């Protein structure tokens, strides 16, 4: 695709070895301050899923608006925000608001939300079952990482299977916050990559989208999922992020708007096998959520 220059395999290998940002060419991208008539700008944007069809559609659409996307693929999450904070990227799109809030709180940096994209429901799977019937007394495998553990517990809360103790952190509960005596199931935190194995062994498991795809599990097999429209879902809205001084950059704002074009939305649905739920929220509301989550981390 002519509008994007994707990272080469050798560069990806270098990234894995050094932990630093790898760029798809040696030149520095032009920081976009606007797109005047006939002016072309290049925006360097970092992600962890550049191979998805939506990126190709998005880049072609951006090119029609005079914006060339230099898409930088990362193999892991942690370096992406740091690369943005250090000015090696102009934007990134790989994370939800809670992940961004935790990064800001721990790093002391001040990245902001330029626009929203989608939310991906987190779901409970139980092999050869189509409902929650009979699940009482089960041990449910949940991902143990910071991004998904609290949300997984809240999936079980919404399903009526788990009760939290009084005073528990309702946004990001831990297994210690579960009132075992009042709950119908127990949880077993495991590495997210192991949740499909638990499912295939016949145990109920909460599995996020990336591992569903790798394990060949159909999203339609879920027996319960959280509600993307609920207040509990707000932290998990995926976003475009920039440095604070660039949050109103008209080119970046334009890109966030273009992501909601019907052609991109169609590609997102194909990439996610129909699980993505589009979210369009005002930028000020998204940054209010970010600030609230950051305060919760302190």
TrEMBL record:
Location (main, coarse): membrane
Organism: Corynebacterium stercoris
Keywords: Lipoprotein, Membrane, Palmitate, Signal
Top-level taxon in the UniProt lineage: Bacteria
Location of the protein in the cell: Membrane
Signal peptide start-end: 1-24
Protein's UniProt name: MetQ/NlpA family ABC transporter substrate-binding protein
Protein topology in the membrane: Lipid-anchor
Family: Belongs to the NlpA lipoprotein family.
One Pfam entry name: Lipoprotein_9
Keyword hit for Transmembrane helix: no
Family annotation (InterPro entries): Lipoprotein_NlpA
């Amino acid at each position: 695709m002519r509008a994007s220059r994707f990272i080469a395999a050798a560069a990806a290998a270098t990234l894995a070895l050094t932990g630093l940002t790898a760029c798809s060419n040696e030149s520095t991208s032009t920081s976009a301050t606007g797109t005047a008539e006939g002016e072309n700008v290049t925006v360097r944007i970092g992600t962890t899923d550049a191979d998805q069809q939506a990126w190709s559609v998005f880049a072609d659409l951006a090119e029609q608006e005079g914006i060339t996307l230099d898409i930088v693929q990362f193999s892991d999450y942690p370096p992406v925000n740091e690369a943005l904070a250090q000015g090696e990227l102009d934007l990134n799109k790989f994370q939800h608001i809670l992940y961004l809030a935790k990064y800001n709180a721990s790093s002391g940096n001040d990245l902001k939300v330029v626009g929203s994209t989608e939310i991906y429901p987190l779901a409970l799977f139980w092999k050869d079952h189509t409902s929650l019937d009979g699940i009482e007394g089960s041990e449910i495998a949940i991902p143990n990482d910071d991004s998904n553990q609290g949300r997984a517990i809240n999936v079980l809360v919404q399903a009526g299977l788990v009760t939290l103790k009084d005073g528990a952190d309702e946004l990001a509960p831990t297994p210690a916050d579960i009132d075992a005596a009042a709950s119908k199931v127990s949880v077993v935190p495991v590495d997210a990559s192991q949740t499909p194995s638990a499912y295939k062994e016949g145990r109920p498991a909460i599995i996020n989208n990336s591992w569903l795809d790798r394990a060949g599990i159909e999203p339609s097999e879920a027996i319960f999922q959280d509600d993307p429209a609920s207040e509990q879902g707000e932290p998990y809205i995926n976003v475009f992020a920039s440095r604070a001084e660039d949050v109103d950059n008209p080119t970046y704002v334009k890109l966030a708007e273009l992501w909601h074009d019907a052609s991109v939305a169609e590609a997102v649905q194909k990439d996610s096998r129909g699980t993505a739920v589009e979210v369009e929220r005002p930028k000020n509301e998204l940054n209010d959520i970010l600030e609230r989550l950051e305060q919760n981390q302190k």
